[in-house]
Design goal:
The protein is of the alpha/beta class and 251 residues long. It has a single domain, classed as 3-Layer(aba) Sandwich (Rossmann fold), CATH 3.40.50. Helix content is 35%, strand content 15%. It contains twelve helices and ten strands. Strands 5-4-6-7-3-8-9-10 form an eight-stranded mixed sheet, sandwiched between helices. Strands 1-2 form a two-stranded antiparallel ribbon. Strand 1 and strand 2 form a beta hairpin. The protein starts with 7 loop residues before the first helix and ends in a 14-residue tail after the last helix. The relative contact order is 0.19.
């Protein structure tokens, strides 16, 4: 992974503002250092692998802390030591306490419950959307659909949408505003037979390739909710937010 770099638009949001990156036209620009990176794709399309690879790149290239929202301790234990040493697993309501962090919300449709406007977690993120830049946060959201990401999160901040394979049926129910870009992404991904190593950057209008480090194969990382206690799984699905997350082995 030493020579790999994510697409330019993602670099702009992941690097610290004091650093620079080269955009898709070859210009050297100052990094933005804040914003939202939605990673959209159907189940088992390697969204989490891409998200973790981005987080690993941040670890190697910056001093920014990492936060893995709502993940059990077993998830952090499965990370490489360099990542683990700067990682935390806050609840969704603790995001506003973070500063200058890169924050992963994996499987966003479950965590945010975007259709439930009364959900406390969703209200927290609605309010957070307008101040992400003030807190210096970059959010990485994985979801099976852009419809699973609350609109307030994508209206008020910098975006770097990344797209993996999307099931044709899921495309039919996507938000109208995203249809054209997602269709183009799927056309590009078809040219590489939807190889899971590839993703499409909407902001850069380019097909990109990412590595697949051995450590991301750990089941605790690809299916983290499997390792939550049943009590916490029930709470999550019920739309509530536990004060802390526990692992099955702690029950």
């Amino acid at each position: 992974m030493s020579d790999w770099r994510p697409c330019p638009r993602a670099q702009a949001l992941l690097l610290s503002p004091s650093e620079s990156y080269v955009d898709s036209s070859g210009q050297t620009l100052p990094a933005i250092g804040t914003g939202i990176i939605p990673i959209v794709g159907s189940a088992r399309s390697a969204k989490t692998t891409l998200a973790l690879t981005l987080m690993a790149w941040v670890t190697n290239k910056t001093d920014r802390p990492l936060a893995f929202v709502g993940m059990p301790k077993s998830y952090l234990d499965a990370l490489p030591k360099k990542m683990r040493d700067r990682a935390t697993n806050p609840s969704i309501n603790q995001i506003a306490e973070l500063r200058d962090a890169v924050v992963l919300l994996d499987d966003t449709a479950v965590i945010l419950n975007a259709r439930d406007s009364s959900n406390k977690r969703n209200r927290t993120l609605n309010r957070l959307a307008g101040v992400i830049s003030h807190l210096g946060l970059t959010l990485i959201l994985t979801s099976q659909s852009m419809a699973g990401v609350d609109l307030s999160l994508v209206r008020f901040t910098e975006l770097a949408p990344l797209v993996k394979r999307i099931d044709p049926m899921a495309l039919k129910v996507e938000r109208d505003s995203w249809h054209e870009a997602l269709d183009l992404a799927q056309y590009s991904l078809r040219t590489v037979d939807y190889d899971r190593a590839f993703y499409y950057s909407i902001g850069d209008e380019m097909l990109c390739k990412s590595p697949y480090p051995k450590w991301v194969k750990d089941d605790r990382l690809s299916r983290p909710y499997r390792y939550l206690s049943q009590k916490d799984v029930n709470t999550l699905i019920g739309g509530k937010n536990p004060a802390r997350w526990s692992d099955d082995e702690e029950e």
